[in-house]
Design a protein that fits this description.
- The structure is a single chain.
- The chain is α/β, with parallel strands linked by helices and about 260 residues long.
- The protein has eleven helices and eight strands.
- Strands 3-4-2-5-1-6-7-8 form an eight-stranded mixed sheet, with helices on both faces.
- It is globular, with a radius of gyration of 17 Å.
- The mean pLDDT is about 90.
Length: about 260
C-alpha cells in the first residue's frame, strides 16, 4: 500500500510544486512506483511533468465532480514509474461545486482507494491556500511534507500551518503526521538562510529534514521545458538536492519513521 504524502503550505512561492515534481522523479528513479495528484487549478505540476496546458481531456475535476474513476485519467510521464492525475482550470469551479456534495472532505481519499495498491508513493500537490481541495489532500494523506522558503517570516507562517493541521487531525484525519519540514531556496552565502534553519531546528527539532534545496538556475528553468530537473539536468545542484531528498524520505520509511 502506498505512502500518501501531501506537499502543503498555505503560502505560495515556497517551492511546493517544484518539490512535488522533483521528489516524485527522484523516488521513481529509485525504482519506486509513484503517483502525483495535481489538485491545484493552476496545473503547474501537470505542465511541469510534460502536460501541455489545454490538452487535458479528463482531469481530477472529472473524478471529483463526475465520479470518473482515477484509473481512467492517469497519464504517463517521461519516467516509466511515474504517473500523473492531471489538473486543469476546471478545478477552480470544483471548489464551489464540492461544497454541495455529501462528505466533501473525503472525496479524494475515496477516489484514491482503488488505485493506491499499484503504487509505493502518492504525492499530492496542494493549492497555496486552505481550500476544500487542500483539505481533501490532507484528509487523504498519511503525512505532510512542508516546503519552507528561507525568509524572515518563515516561522510565523509555519505556526499557522501547524494550527491548521491540528484542526484537520481533530475533525477528519487523526493519524496525519508530519513527514518533514523542507528548507527551499536556501542560499548558503547569506546569514538569513542559516538563521532560518537554526530557528526552525530549535522550534521543531527532528521535523526539519537534513536535505536543503538551494537556489538554482537549472531548477528554475526545468518547468518551462515540462521536465523534472532530474531529467533536464541531472548534474545540477538542484537535481542533486532532490535526489538526496528522495533518499532521505526512503530511509525514513525503511526505518518506520514519518
Amino acid at each position: 500500500m502506498a505512502k500518501i504524502i501531501a506537499v502543503t503550505n498555505q503560502k505560495g512561492g515556497v517551492g511546493k510544486t517544484t518539490t512535488t515534481i522533483n521528489l516524485a522523479a527522484g523516488l521513481a528513479m529509485a525504482d519506486m512506483r509513484v503517483l502525483v495528484v495535481d489538485t491545484d487549478a493552476q496545473a503547474n505540476c501537470s505542465s511541469g511533468l510534460g502536460v501541455v496546458k489545454g490538452s487535458v481531456e479528463l482531469s481530477l475535476y472529472d473524478s471529483l465532480i463526475r465520479s470518473v474513476p482515477l484509473a481512467t485519467i492517469l497519464r504517463d510521464t517521461e519516467l516509466d514509474n511515474l504517473k500523473l492525475v492531471p489538473a486543469d482550470r476546471n478545478l477552480s469551479g470544483a471548489v464551489v461545486e464540492m461544497l454541495e456534495l455529501p462528505e466533501r472532505e473525503f472525496l479524494l481519499k475515496r477516489l484514491l482507494e482503488p488505485v493506491v495498491g499499484n503504487f509505493d508513493f502518492v504525492l499530492i500537490d496542494s493549492p497555496p491556500s486552505l481550500s476544500i481541495l487542500t483539505l481533501n489532500g490532507l484528509v487523504a494523506a498519511d503525512s505532510v511534507l512542508i516546503p519552507i522558503q528561507c525568509e524572515y517570516f518563515a516561522l510565523e507562517g509555519l505556526t499557522d500551518l501547524f494550527d491548521t493541521l491540528a484542526r484537520v487531525r481533530r475533525a477528519f484525519n487523526p493519524l496525519l503526521s508530519i513527514q518533514g519540514i523542507l528548507l527551499t531556496m536556501f542560499d548558503e552565502r547569506t546569514n538569513l538562510s542559516a538563521q532560518v534553519r537554526e530557528d526552525l531546528k530549535s522550534h521543531f527539532a527532528d521535523k526539519v529534514l537534513e536535505t536543503v534545496i538551494p537556489r538554482n538556475v537549472r531548477l528554475a528553468e526545468a518547468p518551462s521545458f515540462g521536465k523534472p530537473v532530474l531529467i533536464y539536468d541531472i548534474r545540477s545542484k538542484g537535481a542533486e538536492s532532490y535526489l538526496r531528498l528522495a533518499k532521505e524520505i526512503l530511509s525514513y520509511e525503511k526505518e518506520g519513521i514519518g
